[in-house]
């Protein structure tokens, strides 16, 4: 066999091998694309879970169970089965989540259940509307929320209350509070979402020439427009929690849930007040 014939033979073999490889790739393209899509979806859900915990769980709950009187649940059948028709949304649920997270919600669609008729019911999270999140991050949050669809509606057992409720008497004697536990409680109850993460409620942290809530609690008692009954900063903070409508800070609406006297224990109230008093 001459050199030319050998080169032709090798060329034919290489063409046949290349063709076979391309055919094999073509036959397996669909399954490979499915695997790639699943991997991308899993990655989006993982990133979305982290973003949800940081940005959303304070109001909607770690497991999407919501907070009674404050924010609706996302991990329930109503959200997946009825929410689109309830608000008249003609697009996909994914588009609805992305749109709502991006632009926020100016008013509550269920004011009989959740507050938000004067101040925003939900802040805008997209950087296009003044929020902190990019478009891809919001899509990841949507992917995480959509991941609940197959199990949505499962019952969340409420945690057993570890003591008597604090009630509504602001002169009640409280145990010594732990500010670290109070900070954790403030996050889990959604307080920080309104008072730290957004401006829905009066800011807790010091900013500019305005001191933190621990200092302002004492100052509030001497203000001429104070309409409450507290005599100490601690009583003022407890009053703000269990009687939030007794004194509404100027410029803000009456949005606080009215059942904290029933759902918080004496120890939890003490911890929360200790945390607030530490914010000077």
- Counting DSSP E segments of at least 2 residues, the number of strands comes to 0
Estimated structural class:
mainly alpha
User: What's the alpha carbon Rg, rounded to whole Å?
Assistant: 27 Å
The CATH architecture of one domain? Orthogonal Bundle
Shape: elongated
In DSSP terms (H or I, runs of 4 or more residues), the helix count works out at 12
How much helicity do the residues have?
40-55%
CATH class annotation of one domain:
Mainly Alpha
Alpha carbon gap, first and last residue = 93 Å
Strand count, sense and barrel status of the largest sheet are: none
Please specify the SSE layout and strand pairing.
Elements: H1 3-55, H2 57-60, H3 77-81, H4 83-87, H5 93-103, H6 135-146, H7 179-188, H8 191-197, H9 213-220, H10 233-242, H11 260-263, H12 266-277
Helix pairs in contact: 1-6, 5-6, 7-12, 9-10, 10-12
Could you provide a short overview of the structure?
By secondary structure, the chain is mainly α. It is built from 12 helices and no strands.
Structural features, described:
The protein is mainly α and 280 residues long. Among the domains are: 89 residues, no CATH class; 99 residues, Orthogonal Bundle (Cytochrome Bc1 Complex, Chain D, domain 2), CATH 1.10.760.10. 50% of the residues lie in helices and 0% in strands. It is built from twelve helices and no strands. The longest helix has 53 residues. The chain is elongated, with a radius of gyration of 27 Å.
């Amino acid at each position: 066999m001459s050199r030319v014939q050998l080169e032709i033979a090798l060329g034919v073999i290489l063409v046949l091998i290349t063709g076979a490889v391309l055919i094999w790739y073509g036959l397996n393209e669909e399954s490979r694309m499915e695997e790639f899509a699943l991997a991308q979806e899993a990655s989006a859900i993982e990133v979305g879970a982290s973003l949800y915990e940081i940005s959303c769980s304070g109001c909607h709950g770690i497991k999407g169970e919501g907070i009674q009187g404050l924010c609706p649940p996302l991990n329930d059948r109503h959200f997946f089965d009825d929410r689109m028709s309830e608000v008249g949304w003609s697009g996909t649920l994914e588009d609805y989540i992305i749109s709502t997270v991006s632009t926020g919600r100016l008013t509550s669609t269920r004011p009989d259940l959740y507050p938000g008729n004067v101040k925003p019911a939900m802040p805008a999270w997209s950087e296009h509307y003044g929020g902190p999140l990019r478009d891809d991050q919001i899509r990841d949050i949507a992917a995480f929320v959509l991941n609940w669809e197959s199990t949505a509606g499962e019952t969340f057992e409420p945690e057993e209350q570890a003591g008597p409720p604090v009630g509504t008497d602001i002169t009640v004697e409280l145990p010594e509070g732990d500010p670290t536990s109070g900070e954790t409680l403030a996050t889990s109850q959604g307080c920080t979402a309104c008072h730290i993460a957004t401006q829905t409620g009066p800011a807790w942290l010091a900013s500019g020439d305005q001191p933190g809530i621990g200092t302002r609690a004492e100052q509030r008692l001497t203000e001429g427009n104070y309409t409450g009954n507290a005599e100490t900063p601690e009583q003022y903070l407890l009053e703000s929690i269990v009687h939030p409508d007794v004194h509404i800070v100027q410029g803000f609406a009456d949005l606080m849930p009215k059942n904290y006297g029933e759902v918080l224990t004496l120890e939890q109230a003490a911890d929360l007040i200790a945390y607030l008093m530490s914010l000077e």
